[in-house]
């Protein structure tokens, strides 16, 4: 019975390691099994996306018409589609397309949203007014319809899909960055830093953005599944990614005429989209719980 | 209050005008139109005639002014994809299918969502709470057209119970309704659960308990009233979303609704139809936000009007 007590004492005596917000968050995150499961799924998809050329049995644009519509077999583990693509290869390259779009959209969202939000939040006044009106107008555009509309003008393809999704995705980032900076800009350390002659840019980069980072990280993690969903949806409608680049959404859309017999054409891509969405959402929720314990119940 | 409402209204009108201008400009900024030589080779005279008929030979600002003037008289022009009727007639023909689906979805998802949210909150950490939370996560994360395909695979192809798509018979609506309802239901259940849990911890609930009130009376009289008010701001904006946003579901189940026609009009560059749909949705959005904000200040006097202005 004495053993646990000594262990406890030993822990008390041991000098405590430095605890930061991030190390605490890491501990909380690693104890959240749902988030860890999500992280594993996400890691698998990222692995598939990065090493697609090595993992995939054939190139994504390689097809043999004679082998079209074959059920899963030893030669084609997931079967072949209507024009004879190896379905496993399409699925693996589909992960690449999906993640490429998702990360590019985030790059665009943060590239536009953070500077605009920081400018509005820090400067206030007229700059703030103009930026916020811009945000308001962009909000009035119906989200998915607007992306469809943009694609109908530009035509499909990887770059245009990223543009169409990205053009509305920066709004939330901008709004959030601004709100964060407004709540921080009158704090003592900012005022002190300004009194020392620091420029706005220095204050934002050195003090304000690091403080706003947890919120932005959560935003990033939850923005990725939104972009995956948007790309899958647009490609499903036939407005998104163009052939020969594989996309899970397009594979779902293309399968609709065949699933009555070739059910596997509908099963695999839908499962992949659902798993990716769940994985990224779990990671995002886990990050939110880990970084912002006040919102635990949300 | 009057000033607040007027200010919000001015903002709404301003946003709508900008939406219409941006949509109009974007649509005309790119080369290629419905009367492209490639798609429909016409003799020059005939082409000029067609362009004049639709007013496409005028300067762009004139086209816009003329268009908006007609829109204010509810004349959205003639859809290129179906020139025997007006856009208004086309929308009147195809929107009911979407609205029908949306109305049933709202009914099902909100009633079931609120019910599940309350039950799972009252039995926090029980099996029913876990089932509801899992369902809510699934419905929230998995896109509705994916769920639609799964339903087709199971109930149409494996079990032969329901048709894969189509419209008109009651059995046609079952799967689209289920697939479409899951996400809003998840959202409603999630919010209801959190709000009820929060209300349960409030002082007035403890007071009611101290008075000796039974669980039923507390839940009905004290908890629900306070827990459900914040839902207005969540549920309100969902309505225009649902009334116009079933594009994926309509495509999956081959429902001849507004969403499906919007997609076909983008394939055909059907300017009048695209403009009308975009404006319709923007108006619905704006008006719903406007109403739900004002409704919120009416039902919850704690909300300070001034504070909401700077959002």
Describe this structure in words.
The complex is a heterodimer of chains A (298) and B (311). In chain A, helix 2 (21-31) packs across helix 12, helix 5 packs antiparallel against helix 6 and helix 10 (200-237) packs parallel to helix 11 (248-255). The mean pLDDT of chain A is 84. Chain A contains twelve helices and no strands. Chain A has 298 residues and is an all-alpha fold. The longest helix of chain B has 36 residues, at 87-122. The interface between A and B is large, with 40 and 47 residues.
Please give a quick description of this structure.
With 298 residues, chain A is an all-alpha fold.
Rg of chain A (CA only): 24 Å
Distance linking N and C termini of chain A: 41 Å
Secondary-structure-derived class of chain A: mainly alpha
Q: How much helical structure, as a percent, in the residues of chain A?
A: over 70%
Main sheet: strands, sense, barrel of chain B: none
Mean pLDDT of chain B: 81
